[in-house]
Amino acid sequence: MNEHPYLIFKLNDSLYGIDSYGVEEVFFLPELKTIPDTPDDIIGLVDVRGYIIPVMDLNIRFGYQPQKYKLTDTIVVIKSKDIRMGLIINGVQEVSNLKVDKITFEVYLRRELSDGREKFIDGIAKKNEDIIFILNSEKLLGYVERKISDNQDGKATKTEDSQALLEQKLFLFSHATDKEKHIFRQRAKTLSSLTAKKDFTGFKSLAVIILNDEYYGIDLTLIREFTDFELSTPIPCTPSHIIGNMNLRGEIITLIDLRSILNLPMDDISSDSQVMIVEIQDILVGIYIKEVFDIIFVNPQEILSPPSVNYIDDEQYLEGTTKFQGKTMSILDLKSIFLGDKLVVNETI
Fold this sequence. Notes:
The chain is α+β, with helices and mostly antiparallel strands.
């Protein structure tokens, strides 16, 4: 069967695929070196083991509104010959074999792709109910090479808006807290000091969150996004672990406080806290957290079985434990918590 592997990733609520043979590596977004007089979609540079790699924001390249960067954003490095480029995306979904003869570029799609994507998309593929836009990495690399060459040859247009453009790029990182900026900076230092690529195949990706000054690991594949905590509407006649409802861009999300489930003190909710939006099967909820601290990869062999004492009415809520910053960190099993009958999410008013 004529199949080919593609790296499938998320960007702006759409799925994209790129030839996995052209992908050199994937890592979480670090601090970038932002420089003036570069195209608006080239956000900055990153040093990866001595290689200085330009990083493109595909949202800007495709004509979308720039989005402020998050710790969960990812860079995919693509390469052809001696040319490398990083692409900022919202998250990798999987590597999947797609049937090449089923990838099409229907005529109507060209009319719909009037936002700048059509120059870099070879076709569309379908997997189950998902539509995947197939990117052409050679066209993306060729575009960046031409832009860099124009700058080096003095052909790039110099405008009075160059300082404003630089400030706009810096603004995409400006919302980060001091702790998040520290994480971005540490990631950049780690990338520049690495001596060889690390293969994360088979590793488990975890978001490290903080609840009552304790670290907990959450399966990153279950998390749709992180957002700031805002005022919520209380729901009458509901258990104490249900905070209320919040409006997330027109979508009503029920907020859950896991601290009572985890036998943690129920301190007051702080206005500078965050909400973790998770999606488990047909359940979409927001989980109150103090903050997201980091995104890490963990070797499954380094995940230990949870202690036998960590149960809720005979239901296990820990997936396991692992080491983080020299201490033991619990990995929460959200599926067991939300799919069991002990945690009521949809309560009748």
